[in-house]
Structures are given as structure tokens and as C-alpha cells.
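Long-time lurker, first post. I've been practising inverse folding by hand and with some scripts of my own, and I keep getting stuck on stretches where the C-alpha cells seem ambiguous. Below is the full C-alpha cell string for one chain I'm working on. Before anyone asks, I'm not after the true native sequence, just a reasonable design that respects the backbone. If someone could post their per-position residues I'd love to compare against what I wrote down in my notebook.
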């Protein structure tokens, strides 16, 4: 007797989309370039001006794409509100707070160390709010990854004195940590099924509006140099559209506590890019930390 088509189809393993197979590695690579592009962008612009323009352009591009492709829009005001809240946490809250901390004198290494707690904080929140089971193996990977990140950025922590101004920026750095952690959880919990075109347009428009009202007199307007235009274009196309889209896709198909472990790979990749593009030194401790991070992600994810 020939097996039925239904039984045959059930016995076949579900095909994995090529994008899902390569999404984690591509996300880490793209997200890591954001720090390099941001460093180039703020050389010719105040940080909040740069962020506001970036969000506004991303919103217009996604809005145009959504209208051309007839993307579905959220039908209930409650869904729109959830999308806005998630966007403000992931975009305006996180990026705005990081730039605010940098402006107050907190070093990039210090911020990286604080934000490096994100996977642990997200895992704790996921186990509590999303009822995800975070077993021993994943906790071991998360803690190992934190140790690896600490080793990777430890040389940078010695650059610059911890001044009174830097102390004023620490609350902003801690807010950035909480914002990206809670934003990830909120996106996973309340924005499942959000269309990346229409939902992204709403999130970036709301974030651009909030950042606009936070721009102060000490935040200079951009100088439209070739370097600034290239950095802005990279931040919009590669980060705001590419990396964020991949992050949301990963959250759509995976547990939040698993997805955020990929953030541990960002400091090593950023260090590697800094060495290639700016000739920054790579120490033995950095190499050991990178190895620990790779092992941690393999364990946890």
C-alpha cells in the first residue's frame, strides 16, 4: 500500500529558510558595525541630531515600502500602542541613552561592560515574564559569555579616568541596559506577528519624535560631509533596517533568552573591526575572551 500524501508530508522534516539559518551570524556582523558607523557619524554631528535623522529616514523608507507592497497595518489601537512602546524601548531608549552617557563622559568600554549584562537581565526577565525555561546549560553559557565579554573589553576600561562627569552618565548607561532588555521582552511578548514594514515605520516615527524633543542647545547640527552621509546611510540601511529586522525575526521564531546570547558576540566582532579599520590593538586577553564568548554562545544557543 502506498503511503498517503498526508503521512508522507508529516514524515518530511520542515525545511529551514536560508535566512533563518544564517540570521544569527548575519545579525552579529551587522550589529557590530553600528559602533564603528556611530563613531564616524558623531565626528560631524551631535549624537541626538544623528539619531533623530536616522530614525526619521528609516521611518520614511519603511512607510514607502509598506505602502508600495501593501503591507498589513495593525487594526486595533492596543496593538499600535504595544508596537510604539516596544520601539521606544529598543530604539529611542537604548540608543538615546547610550549617546547621552557618552556625552557625559562615560567611556565606550564602561558602557559596553554595563550593556554586556543584557543577556543575563533578559534571561531573568524572560523566565519571569515570558515563563521561558532557562536551564542550567543556558545559565552556564550566559555567565561564561559575561566573563568573556569582560575580558574582551577590559583593555578599553583602562582608557580614560572615571570622572565626576562620567558618574553623572552612569544612570543613562544603566537606563540603556534596562531599555534594550525590557524592549526585547516587550517585543517578544506583545508584538508577535508584527509586520516589519508597517510596524517598523510606526516604531521609528515615534522614536524620531521623542529624540527630537530631547535635542538640546549643546547638540550641534550635522555637517553634511561625505563621511557623515556614508555613516548615516550605513546606520539607516544596515542597522535600522537590516540588523533590527533580523533581531525581530529571531525573536519571532526563538526564545528571547536564547536570542540575546548572540549579543555576547558583538564586542569581539567590534574589536576585530576596530583593529582592521582603525588599527586598534588586540591583546592576548582579548583573544582569550573571544574564545570564551564563542564557547558560551555554543553552550547557551
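-- Answer (accepted) --
I ran through it position by position. Result:
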Amino acid at each position: 500500500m502506498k503511503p498517503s500524501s498526508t503521512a508522507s508530508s508529516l514524515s518530511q522534516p520542515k525545511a529551514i529558510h536560508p535566512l533563518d539559518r544564517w540570521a544569527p551570524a548575519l545579525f552579529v556582523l551587522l550589529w557590530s558595525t553600528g559602533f564603528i558607523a556611530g563613531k564616524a557619524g558623531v565626528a560631524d554631528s551631535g549624537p541626538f541630531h544623528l539619531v533623530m535623522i536616522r530614525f526619521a529616514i528609516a521611518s520614511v523608507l519603511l512607510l514607502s515600502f509598506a505602502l508600495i507592497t501593501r503591507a498589513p497595518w495593525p487594526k486595533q489601537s492596543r496593538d499600535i500602542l504595544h508596537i510604539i512602546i516596544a520601539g521606544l524601548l529598543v530604539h529611542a531608549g537604548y540608543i538615546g541613552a547610550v549617546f547621552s552617557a557618552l556625552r557625559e563622559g562615560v567611556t565606550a568600554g564602561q558602557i559596553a561592560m554595563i550593556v554586556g549584562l543584557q543577556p543575563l537581565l533578559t534571561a531573568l526577565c524572560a523566565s519571569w515574564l515570558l515563563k521561558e525555561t532557562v536551564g542550567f546549560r543556558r545559565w552556564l553559557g550566559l555567565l561564561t559569555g559575561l566573563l568573556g565579554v569582560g575580558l574582551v573589553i577590559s583593555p578599553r576600561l583602562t582608557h580614560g579616568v572615571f570622572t565626576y562627569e562620567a558618574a553623572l552618565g552612569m544612570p543613562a548607561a544603566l537606563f540603556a541596559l534596562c531599555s534594550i532588555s525590557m524592549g526585547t521582552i516587550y517585543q517578544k511578548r506583545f508584538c508577535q506577528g508584527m509586520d516589519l514594514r508597517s510596524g517598523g515605520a510606526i516604531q521609528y516615527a515615534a522614536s524620531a519624535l521623542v529624540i527630537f524633543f530631547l535635542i538640546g542647545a549643546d547638540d550641534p547640527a550635522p555637517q553634511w560631509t561625505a563621511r557623515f552621509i556614508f555613516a548615516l546611510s550605513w546606520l539607516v540601511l544596515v542597522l535600522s533596517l537590516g540588523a533590527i529586522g533580523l533581531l525581530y525575526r529571531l525573536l519571532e521564531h526563538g526564545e528571547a533568552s536564547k536570542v540575546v546570547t548572540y549579543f555576547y558576540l558583538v564586542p569581539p566582532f567590534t574589536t576585530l573591526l576596530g583593529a582592521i579599520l582603525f588599527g586598534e590593538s588586540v591583546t592576548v586577553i582579548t583573544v582569550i575572551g573571544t574564545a570564551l564568548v564563542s564557547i558560551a554562545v555554543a553552550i547557551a544557543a
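A couple of notes from the structure itself: Residues 233 and 264 are 26 Å apart (CA to CA). The first helix runs from residue 5 to 11. Happy to go over any region you disagree with.
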